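Structural prep section.
Before we set up the soaks we want a predicted structure of the protein with adenosine-5'-triphosphate in place, mainly to decide which crystallisation condition to try first. Input record follows.
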Amino acid sequence: MADENENILVVDDDKNMLEVLMLRIEGEGYKVSVATEPETALKMAKDNPFDLALVDLKIERKSGIVLMRDLHAMFPEMPVIILTAYGTIETAVEAMKEGAYSYLTKPFDHRDLFLQIKNGLEKSSLSREVRRLKALIGEKYGFENIIGKSKKMQAVMEQVSRAAETDSNVYIYGESGTGKELVAKSLHLLSSRKNESFVPINCTAIPEGLLEAELFGYEKGAFTGAVKAKKGFFEQADKGSIFLDEISEMPEPMQAKLLRVIQERQFYPLGGQKLLKVDVRIITATNKDLKDEVKTGGFREDLFYRIHVIPISLPPLRERKEDIPLLVDHFIKKFAKEMKKETKKLSTVSLQKLLSHSWPGNVRELENTLEYAMAMSTQDMITDDLIFQGENKRTEKGKLKPLKEARNEFEKEYIQNLLLLAGGNVSKSARLAQKHRSDIYDLLKKHQMKPADFKKTK
Ligand SMILES: Nc1ncnc2c1ncn2[C@@H]1O[C@H](COP(=O)(O)OP(=O)(O)OP(=O)(O)O)[C@@H](O)[C@H]1O
Ligand SMILES: [Mg+2]
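Run finished without errors. Recording the tokens verbatim:
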């Protein structure tokens, strides 16, 4: 008897035929969904993928071959069996060339039908297995730097390896320091684009006026200062992936230009006459909820939907504390190597301290905490006095502090006041402080603050 979990789609505009097929196939114990129209069939497949499809060669408005192509665009490995009327063998052969798994000529013998279904399903589970194995091998390479055994991180990795098989745009969302850039890189390394470039761009690090030139490139003399032609990031990323970090900070005029490039996959460099075509996967990241930005008009809705095809959300560290011991291990090894020291053990109290912290700065904060502890520790054990030492000192009043620490504290207070004054607006803060926006972001990151913390809520 068939496996009930196997889901079969049958598409035929002949309602009687459909009824017969459904009863028979259900009778064999499969789950069956039927459609008389290609559009309905596609929508059903999108909502709930099938293991196999039986498609009549001639359905209203669209040929079965076209439907098969559309199905394969979404599910390249799904076996499609074409049903043809007697005498249309040539078209059946054509269907095979187009990637059909097999064909059946009506009227067909039901034993034949079930044999084909059974073989097709075996093929489909075989390709699933191959894909799973491929992902496992990929894990060794692409995921080697991502530490995380928690269910939440495992789910993230699963999403990443699935996304890696496609060319769709990926949108990574997560608090500061949760590993967005790391995930973007792994995604690239797991994809078929891995031998081409991965080009990361921090949208806040490039002054607004230069962003267009940097992204799309320019010809010599395109603007004052363009002393020679330069390839833009999009061209550098051709056949590979481009990573647009902090996408929420992309200025409005650039959002419009980016939208056009995503839609058309071609553009003119500044001052250039030649249209450039590029084939890039676009990966974006943000620590702000872009949906909110869309609602308040800070981000274009049409662009949002273009980049938000496969969303991957990274959980904050406080929601996966079981990963802390593994991460600690990883960072101790990393810093031991970098500092040419022996690896060290963590005292139980130190670990307790780490586990009870709420980690507003996520993995980056943990990494910094361990870097400090590894640098300061003189024994083979990291004792708890080395964990959050900065914070402990701050509470000691009346003592003269070291200059570095005092400066840090001043800086933290300054940046807090600055952002409060600017209502959380980074551009405005930058103007007030006469600094670049990227400097403001660096300071915020250093002190584990987010612009959103300073936004007026009403
Ligand atoms: N799961 C993880 N395993 C190992 N290292 C990690 C993990 N997550 C993050 N890191 C490390 O933490 C640091 C911060 O990660 P990353 O820069 O990718 O975060 P981010 O989300 O891009 O942060 P931000 O929003 O501040 O830009 C990096 O040094 C990264 O290598
Ligand atoms: Mg980042």
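Observations: The pocket of magnesium ion (ligand 2) is lined by residues 180-181, 245 (CB under 6 Å).
Flagged for discussion at group meeting.
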